[in-house]
Design brief:
36% helix, single chain, Rossmann fold, two-stranded parallel sheet, 13 helices
Length: 328
C-alpha cells in the first residue's frame, strides 16, 4: 500500500500538467488514493483468479494490450511487472522501468558500513521513469483533495464537531523492527490523554490490533476508534481533518502524506536515508536514536542482531510527545 501511495504525487502532477490518459494497474482496493484524478482508469489485478501464475500474467498482458498504450511505466520492477514489461517490449509502446537502487540500499544496511548517505526518494525515482518516457513536469502535488473534505455522516455521528486538537496514531507495522514497543506507545497515549483537550484516533485493521486499540480505549477517555463499517475513503477524509499523525515507517505515513498531513514518524531498524520518507514530510519530525547498527534493514524484516531492538526501545515516549506538541 505504501508503494502505491507514493506513486500518487507523481501521477497527480503528470495528470495536472500534461494532456495524458492514465491507466493504473494495481489492487482495486487502492483506488481511493487516486480520487483526485477522476479520469484516471484503474485496472485491478486478480492474482488469485484470472491473473494467477505465469499463464495468468500472459492473460493479463492481453487484457492490457487492448488499451493500445503509447507508453508503459513499470514502477515496481518485480517478477510480475518484469514479465509484463518483456511482453510489452514486443509492441509499439515505449517501456521504461524504475531504478530502485537495490545495491545502494543493501550497502546502506550492510554490517560494518563506513558511512551512510541519503539515497534518492522513491517518489523521485518514480518521477524519473516518466522523464525517461519523455514527459516534462514538476512535482507539485499537495493533496488528493482540492478542499478539505466533509466527514462522512457515520464519522460525524461517532466523533462530533472538531473543537479540540485531533491526533492520529498508527502504532502498527508489518515487521517488528518497524514497530515502536506498544507499552511505550501506550505511554505516549497516556501523556497526551493526561494533558486533555485532544482527541486521539487510532489506526489499525488486524484482529489483534483491534483488540489492543479497544483495550486502550477502555483506559483513556480521549481515544476514538474508527467504526467497523468505515473503509479507506473514510480514513483518508478523517486524516484530512487531523492536526498531526504519528506513524511508523509504514503505509499510514504515506496515506497521511496524500492529504497534506504532517507526520511524526518513528524509525527503528529502517532509516529514512533509504528514500521512503513520506512525500513533503520533514526530517525534523522524525524520531530516532543514532546507533552504529542502524539501519540494519531496508524494509525492517531482518531480526535484530543485538536481540534487544535498542533502536526502538531507546526512544523515550517523552521524545515522541515533544515532536507532537509542535502541532498542538
Amino acid at each position: 500500500m505504501g508503494d502505491v501511495a507514493m506513486t500518487v504525487p507523481v501521477l497527480s502532477s503528470l495528470y495536472q500538467q500534461q494532456n495524458v490518459k492514465l491507466t493504473m494497474l494495481t489492487t482495486q482496493a487502492f483506488s481511493p488514493m487516486f480520487s483526485g484524478m477522476p479520469d484516471l482508469q484503474i485496472v485491478g489485478i486478480d492474482k488469485r483468479g484470472r491473473h494467477k501464475g505465469l499463464i495468468g500474467l500472459v492473460r493479463l498482458f492481453f487484457d492490457l494490450k487492448k488499451y493500445d498504450f503509447d507508453a508503459v511505466a513499470d514502477l515496481h520492477d518485480v517478477f510480475r511487472s518484469k514479465v509484463l514489461r518483456l511482453l510489452f517490449s514486443f509492441t509499439s509502446a515505449k517501456v521504461e522501468k524504475i531504478n530502485k537502487g537495490r545495491t545502494d540500499k543493501k550497502q546502506l544496511a550492510r554490517r560494518g558500513k563506513n558511512q551512510s548517505v541519503p539515497l534518492q526518494l522513491t517518489v523521485e525515482r518514480y518521477h524519473d521513469v516518466f522523464k525517461r518516457l519523455g514527459f516534462t513536469f514538476e512535482l507539485n502535488f499537495t493533496s488528493i483533495f482540492s478542499t478539505k473534505p466533509v466527514l462522512p455522516e457515520i464519522l460525524q455521528q461517532s466523533f462530533g464537531e472538531k473543537n479540540q486538537k485531533w491526533i492520529g496514531i498508527a502504532p502498527f507495522a508489518k515487521h517488528q523492527g518497524k514497530i515502536y514497543p506498544l507499552e511505550k506507545m501506550e505511554q505516549v497515549v497516556h501523556l497526551l490523554d493526561k494533558q486533555g483537550e485532544v482527541k486521539i484516533f487510532l489506526f489499525g485493521n488486524g484482529e489483534e490490533e483491534k483488540k489492543i486499540m479497544t483495550y486502550w480505549k477502555t483506559k483513556y477517555t480521549s481515544i476514538c476508534l474508527m467504526p467497523t463499517a468505515c473503509r479507506l475513503p473514510d480514513e483518508l477524509k478523517l486524516m484530512a481533518q487531523l492536526d498531526v499523525m504519528v506513524s511508523m515507517d509504514s503505509a499510514n505515513m504515506h496515506l497521511a502524506s496524500l492529504v497534506g498531513l504532517p507526520v511524526v514518524s518513528i524509525w527503528g531498524a529502517t532509516h529514512h536515508y533509504a528514500g521512503f520518507l513520506g512525500w513533503h514530510q520533514s526530517v525534523d519530525d522524525i524520531v530516532e536514536v543514532d546507533l552504529p547498527c542502524r539501519p540494519c534493514s531496508v524494509y525492517g524484516n531482518i531480526p535484530c542482531r543485538r536481540n534487544d531492538y535498542a533502536c526502538m526501545n531507546n526512544i523515550k515516549p517523552e521524545a515522541v510527545v515533544e515532536k507532537i506538541k509542535r502541532y498542538l
